[in-house]
Amino acid sequence: MASTTIPATSSELLARVDVGWRPLREAVRGLGRARLDERAPTGWSYHDLLAHIAAWEDLTARRLRTLRETGQRTQPAEALDIDGFNARIVETHRLVGAEALVDELDTSHRALRRELEQLTDVQIQGGLGWAVVIVAGSSYGHYAEHAAELDIG
Question: Is the pTM of this model over 0.70?
Fold first, then answer.
């Protein structure tokens, strides 16, 4: 059962990300690289879905780095035009091979974790929980949005 408490510290937020990541990553292993071109129940291929998840984690890691380094809470165009961003990611990743795509997924996740490890609790709590909101939206909350497609509970 998912926790309903809002993470108040960087370690709590990181733990929430890790708990959500494990079943997602297991589902990717279960799919195998050979099945990534198959269609998920909602219409995207698994390849498209993984590119989408990786891109949002990468964007969030960059936003957290800006917060950590400058104190600014950025709202890049990608975060405002969600459908456009998603379409661009799918298109730009069409020719990315399965191995490279899974590597990108893992790399973006490691980048997100690294940024979370470096944030202070004050940065996590500041701006009405801005960091928590964007991390949830691109990691554990995002994984939950795609749970049915990946057959994770």
Answer: yes
